[in-house]
Amino acid sequence: MNRKICFQVGTLALAFATAGPLIWPSPAYSETAGMERRDDRRDDRQEAQDIRQKGRDVSRETKEQCRDASGSGPECRKAKRNVKQKARKSARDVKIND
Question: Distance between CA atoms of 68 and 62, rounded to whole angstroms?
């Protein structure tokens, strides 16, 4: 009789252990229009950030080339600033137009 009770208790515990995850509701993620817009804005921000970073890198190279060509400090700063401003404008265009 002791063996029968142990088997029944073990079977019942196994049934509860396997049924628990099946009964528990799983989270549902619905894709709505708002989520799509947020994802699009997030992608646009990332693209704009990449454009600005590339502009920074190019502006550093521009300034180094200007210095190597014996350019004056103000001329090199102006060249660097112009490159960075173009990159910022391109990044704004990406964020606003897309």
Answer: 10
From residue 13, alpha-carbon distances to 16, 22, 25 in Å are 5, 15, 21
Residue 6: φ, ψ to 5°: -60, -40
**87, burial (CB in 10 Å: exposed 0-12, middle 13-18, buried 19+):** buried
- The structure tokens listed for 18 are 């396997």
Interatomic CA distance for residues 55 and 82, integer angstroms: 10
Rounded to two decimals, the pTM is: 0.57
pLDDT of residue 34: 81
Helices 33-68 and 73-97, interaxial angle, to 10°? 170
Q: What is the pLDDT of residues 28-68, one digit of tens each?
A: 666 777 888 888 889 888 999 999 999 999 999 999 999 99
Which helix (DSSP H) or strand (DSSP E) does residue 15 occupy? helix 2-23
